[in-house]
């Protein structure tokens, strides 16, 4: 079993308070976040963009594996994940993640590429975790 950790520290109220996020690896170390970074586009991070980064990274890495198994090696894979959060009756909810992929794969078979991208979207661990949200994929083979 693989275990990775991250931590959050918060002080104050929801709107005036502030927090800091850290990761086991040190990639994030006391990274500031707060209401203004989450809802008002102030500098800093927020949980939704971190989920997007995790999903884009996981999907892209999974796609590399699926492509290799299909006999293709990508020169470049670039994925953007857009995490959508909406206010619902129960409160704010992450409702969707849109993945946008641009791939450069010399000699790739288009049909095999799109099949590999779909397989990676469905099987990467972060996609599985986010299964309650709608996950879309717009894949482009350059």
UniProtKB/TrEMBL annotation:
Q: Which superkingdom is the protein from?
A: Bacteria
Q: Which Gene3D superfamilies match?
A: 3.30.300.20
Q: Which PANTHER family is this protein grouped with?
A: OSMOTICALLY INDUCIBLE FAMILY PROTEIN
Provide a Gene Ontology MF annotation, just one: peroxidase activity
Q: Which Pfam families match?
A: OsmC
Q: Which NCBIfam families match?
A: osmo_induc_OsmC
Record-linked InterPro entries: KH_dom-like_a/b (IPR015946), OsmC/Ohr_fam (IPR003718), OsmC/Ohrsf (IPR036102), OsmC_Ohr_Peroxiredoxin (IPR052707), Peroxiredoxin_OsmC (IPR019904)
The name this protein carries in UniProt is: Osmotically inducible protein OsmC
UniProt-annotated stretches for the region Disordered: 1-35
Kindly list the biological process annotations in GO that this record carries: response to oxidative stress
